[in-house]
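note to self: dont lose this again. the chain is below, predicted strucutre after it. 74 aa total, dont forget to put it in the shared folder this time
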Amino acid sequence: MAKTQNQMVLDHLRKHGTINLVTAYNEYGVMALHSRISNLSQAGHEIETISHTQKNRFGKSVQVYDYKLVKEAK
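---
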């Protein structure tokens, strides 16, 4: 049975600690990472949002978000 996107994102967080939109899309085909994070949070997982600014490929400053697994649901 194939894993759901929620399961793939949670497995990634367990293994690597954090995930961002680029990684989620490139590795798992997840285009709506915020929705997956919201689903996991509603299931009781504590996930921290870390924002930072970086330059995109056009040299423009953009806001980027990483999600960090703080505590798993019981």
